[in-house]
Design brief:
By secondary structure, the chain is of the alpha+beta class. It is 47% helix and 16% strand. The chain folds into 2 domains: 2-258, Glutamine synthetase/guanido kinase, catalytic domain (Creatine Kinase, Chain A, domain 2, 2-Layer Sandwich); 263-354, no CATH class. It has an 8-stranded antiparallel beta sheet, sandwiched between helices. The protein has a two-stranded antiparallel sheet with strand order 6-7.
């Protein structure tokens, strides 16, 4: 039952519009990169060495489950379908890098879907934990707990001068990558997002659109993360990100306030039109749906759509993805038109259930 829900369910607790600053910060994530000593990084390891990493990890996962008092689903990517793999990617539970070659690659996913352990991605292990809203503390503590449990049984590659050894030099040191998922419609609509994107690298951050192609943002959702790990403590990394993101949050709120003050009629019209299209459309395109969802979420956060919960945004974000829809229909060969019709059907049903 739990494994079926992993692919068929659309709810993720860490996308539930809860927690601090959740009107702008959709979710927070901590990733830790770890490698086993004396085994080449995955891009240099042969199949027998990759298998050894997978076997060693599997042998200690029971200790993690017992200590955390939570079961983990194990997905052997070599035994899963392409649709299942891509659904996990759409849910942000695995990375594209892990899916490139599924042989001896696997992922362990906690029952609450807030923790996943990727085996033989760019590094032997990638521990990632998520939390709703602007909360780096909770996922950091959980990732550290999993890290300690694994390190008690596995010999991690560590150097006194360089810290944890990783396949990418920018992850050397703590091996920690902290990131947040931001909804920034105000900055996009007021055409100030470019300033944020341009200044991010100068303050040690990477920022990119999470959806869309060719540099265009679909849905106004962005990921912001620290760029470097070496020379900084885990606390310093998280504090730097917290300060920088806090400023982005304030700028987004000022932009939303300006929209309400100077362009309220147009904003309300666009929000209600988006809500109506999502409620009644019989076919919805991918980018179109993301744009409409962004307007509806903005309307819910600003109180324009009274009685509409912002919590539905996360469910709709996942349920409108193409691979998820193919998996739900049990047909991996759906045409674009079939996917668009299925997307509209699923969106209507979810909106009706949350009305």
């Amino acid at each position: 039952m739990a494994e079926r829900e992993l692919f068929a369910g659309s709810h993720l607790a860490w996308l539930a519009a809860e927690g601090e600053d959740s009107d702008v910060v959709l979710a927070s994530r901590i990733c830790l990169a770890r490698n086993l000593r004396e085994i080449p990084f995955p891009n240099r390891a042969d199949l027998s060495q990759l298998a050894e990493v997978a076997e060693r990890t599997a042998a200690v996962l029971g200790d993690v489950e017992a200590a955390m008092e939570e079961p983990f689903d194990c997905v052997d990517l070599a035994k899963s379908t392409a649709i299942e793999q891509n659904v996990l990617w759409e849910k942000h539970l695995v990375s594209r890098a892990l899916l490139k070659n599924p042989v001896h690659r696997s992922v362990y996913i906690s029952n609450d879907r807030c923790t996943s352990i990727l085996v033989n991605e760019e590094n032997h292990l990638r521990i990632q934990t998520m939390a709703a809203g602007f909360d780096l503390k909770t996922p950091y503590e959980r990732a550290s707990c999993v890290d300690d449990l694994l390190e008690a049984k596995l010999d991690f590659a560590f150097d006194e001068s360089l810290g944890y050894l990783t396949s990418c030099p920018t992850d050397l040191g703590t091996g920690l990558r902290a990131s947040v998922m931001l909804h920034l419609p105000g900055l996009v609509y007021t055409e100030n997002i470019g300033n944020i994107l341009n200044i991010s690298p100068q303050i040690g951050l990477s920022m990119s659109a999470m959806y869309g192609e060719g540099g265009e943002s679909a849905g106004n959702v962005f990921a912001v993360a620290n760029k470097l790990s070496l020379g900084l403590t885990e606390r310093e990394l998280c504090d730097n990100l917290r300060i920088s993101v806090g400023e982005i949050v304030e700028q987004e709120r000022r932009a939303r306030k300006a929209l309400l003050l100077y362009d309220k009629d147009r904003l309300e019209d666009e929000v209600w039109r988006a809500y109506g299209v999502l409620h009644y459309a019989r076919a919805l395109g991918d980018a179109e749906t993301l744009a409409l969802l962004s307007r509806v979420r903005l309307g819910a956060d600003l109180g324009i759509l009274e009685g509409t919960s912002a919590s539905m945004f996360g469910d709709l974000l996942i349920a409108s993805r193409a691979n998820y829809l193919c998996g739900l229909a049990g047909n991996e060969n759906m045409s674009k038109n079939e996917i668009d019709r299925k997307r509209a059907e699923v969106v209507r049903r979810l909106l009706e259930n949350t009305a």
